[in-house]
Design goal:
By secondary structure, the chain is an alpha/beta fold. It has 12 helices and 7 strands. Bound molecules: flavin mononucleotide. Flavin mononucleotide binds next to helix 1, strand 4 and strand 6.
Length: about 280
Amino acid sequence: MSKKILVIYYTQSGQLEDILNNFTAPLIEAGNTVEKVRVYVANDYPFPWNGKAFFAVMPDCVLSVPTELKPFQLKENKYDLIILGYQAWFLSPSIPVNSILNDPAVKAVLKNTPVVTITGARNMWISAMQRIKKILKDSEAKLVGSISLFDKHHNFISFITIFYWMFKGKKGRWLGIFPKPGVSDADISKTGDYGKTVQKYLIGANFDGLQEELIQQKAIEVKYNLMFIESKASKIFAIWANIIAKKKKKTAWLVAFFKPFLSGRIKKQKQLYSGVN
Ligand SMILES: Cc1cc2nc3c(=O)[nH]c(=O)nc-3n(C[C@H](O)[C@H](O)[C@H](O)COP(=O)(O)O)c2cc1C
């Protein structure tokens, strides 16, 4: 029997939309009614980003401050499944996705409804997902599946290439040398397999065992080294976001916080520690 599915998301570059289109293709093929709602922010963030705008969103991401969304309509009052596309910003749910989850109409349809979340991250999505789990629980939604796609290149490489992508707006190979940033095309097209898995469970409206099967398919994978870095960094972000939020000259404080990541200080420190002087 045909089921009603809501797919709701925000995306800047369109990566998350590509992911969701691949993921939902088997669900559409199976004859379900799939309503896709791409949500926009009233005063959208620049894409490509500039440095000031990029770092300025950090406190609101970390402190879950929502922003105004452009009005959007949901066709139904009740869905058989909601697919939520989200992205992590500063180890937190992005401001747009946090705002979507805060929207009264979304909250209403989330109640008592199975939800599958899917992200397209650089590689640090765990803390954001833990917070989304809590928001969904508070809305009395039933999280039945969690899928995480991320850049599989080395953490250092993906850190460099994502800046090229975010600040140039092109998901291309920087200098023709670095790999393409973000989620690989192969991983994006593989999401169709995860969609097929969801379809199997959706037919009987019984999602017991779905997440275990998604884990077997490697639809979600926790990398220990990244988990370790992320747990330390998210604590530091939380402390700083609280400090910066109380300051009048927020930009100056943000510059002070992010300077070590942007300047040559880390490089110099590495040279010092690996040298003999
Ligand atoms: C302001 C900002 C902060 C980000 N922080 C993170 C992060 O903490 N962890 C991560 O894995 N990706 C991070 N990303 C990458 C996004 O999660 C996402 O992969 C990328 O923005 C593409 O998503 P899109 O579909 O909205 O274009 C960040 C991106 C932006 C713009």
